[in-house]
Specification:
heterodimer; A: alpha+beta; four-stranded mixed beta sheet; 5 helices; B: mainly alpha; 0% strand; globular
Amino acid sequence: MDTHRLILVREWDAQHTGSGCCGKVGGGHELCDQDDFRRSRDEMERVGAIYRALYETFGDELDLTVVDPRNTMWLLPTVYRDARRRGLPAGKAVRTMAMSTANGAIVLDGKVLFDGKLPPSPVEAVAAVRAELAATARGT
Amino acid sequence: MPAIVIALLVAVAFALGYRYYSPYLANKVYALQESFVTPAHEFRDGIDYVPTNKHVLFGHHFTSVAGAAPIVGPAIAVVWGWGPALAWVVLGTIFASGAHDFGSIVVSVRHKAQNIGTLTQTVINPRSRTLFLLIIFFLVTLVNAVFAIVIANLFMANPAVVIPIVLEIPIAIAVGQLIYRKRTAALAPSIMGVVVLYASIPLGRAFPLEIDGLAEMVGVQPRTAWVVLLFVYAGVASRIPVWILLQPRDYINSHQLFIALAAILLGIIIGMNEIVAPMLNTDLPPDTPNWFPFLFVTIACGAISGFHSLVASGTTSKQLDKETDARYVGYMGSLGEGSLAVGAILATTAGIAIVGLDWNTQYATFGDAAGGAVGNFVQGVAGFVSNFGIPVEIGTIFAALVVISFAATTMDSGVRLQRYIFQEIGEIAGIRVLKENLNLVTVVAVVIPLALALDPELAFGRLWTLFGTTNQLTAGLALAVIAVWVLTRKRNPLAQIIPLAFLLTMTTWALFVQLGDLWEARDWLLLVLDAIIFILAVWLVIEAILALRRAQTAKAEAPAPEPDRSGDLE
């Protein structure tokens, strides 16, 4: 069974570049005011529900990775490589790569299934992934 | 000696540390097991507990621990010559920071991903939790004071950077609106944000902004006026929802971090510039404290930083896929931080000569070295970027912009963190107003570091030393936790005990010596602060000795430990 790479893009609450050394705060960590990061937290929980539904449905068939959109050093080359592997021309692969940096993006093997607007329920995310996997298996 | 040679030698030393020392820690000290079920798997929820590819996790971990602090310490410490500063950064990174950051992840993973504050309570004793909170309180107070002064000094030395920095606020807010409200992909707006920010540099040059007139009008020094304005900003910014300013500015900062690192590296490679500072400064200015022990508290971040244990145990340990990945994520994170410090050393010893500055003049007194440290770094980076054609004037503003962006984020976060600490103190002490009145708590969180920063007798070097000592005490507490855990697992804890003993000796020694200096200088505010931190250090020494003795006794009496299971609370 082939493993497919599925990337869920969302921020980690309370994470800032360069602040860990002198001010890691919030989000259920050492000392926090959860309300400060409520927005990120809500997003984490919504993506978490999708993550669990996908994991329960597809198990190890999917290599599930949750990535912060600011982690561009990993995210951009990975999505670009996956998009090229899928056969997309360089220009389209770059566009896919850029789209993958939306909060709430869901990217399957270099294809952006949701570009920043999370599906209303995990069921729809599962259906979209299933449809895409079926299409890939048919070679379409 | 050319800077590139130093960079290469450090790269080799770090590679050797990773190749030979980190496997020793992984196999003999921490006894990592690939089959160990990490909390990320045991509690997998897709929210906090998410098994994560080690390269992804390294990105999260490194960007959290890297910041402005590894710049300031090394930029001051080269006053003793680049040799001692470099030696401490390299040895500290390989043997102290590596063991500390890596170990913090491992111990947290073996305790259901508990954070370091809770671990001090679990592994040492409940009293240590109070000690931890007190150290963090003083650490954050000093961080806020230090960075306010750093930014104020940069504004005064580089008035052309003021407009770009002010413009960064609406740029970040606009980026935030696109990312969070319109749900646009982050890459294009954040890169546009960086482009617009750098495009505003000529505007800043055309209209350099100084506040001497305003300061004169209200009868204060320009630095005082800047510091007050910065704390007003930090107080207001800390009350704004994070998604409006703090988080979107971070998208811009995340690009700036890599742009700055790449620019420094490229400049060093292209320029092949010679180091102009002495390897060992034998002609020290008379006001310079002895390098032994002050070097080891002047450079905290960059050699070893206690705050890394918060990141390591706060989020990283919840995402570790395999326990064996802790070596790559934790140890490499330390090496990355050490590399930043080396960049700062090279900028202040080789880069500044490119822009025509005389090193001996810049480091003529310890006061100049401390007060001008970040300015020297900025000039040094400007020198490096001039090697590939960027005019020095532009490069200076660019470097100042990067440093201030990070320092402002640190202040914003620091004031929030200070507020949380007061709220926690309010909860523990049953002071409801402190717990519930956010405006009051914010004012208190701002006023305390502000009072420090405005101390008329203030010598920045002494303030920085105090910051270094609190950071080292945090690291000491984490090392004590790791050492106790290693000892109870019947393994050799020397990899933790040696840096722990060294750090605590240097810290208490430096604090003690500085007590005398502050007494002579009649700087009562810092004297009281130094005395309190000295007491905390002694308290930590006692707790560490007691905990290690208890662990030693338990080890002697207990049978061989069972293999660790996920979630074991040992």
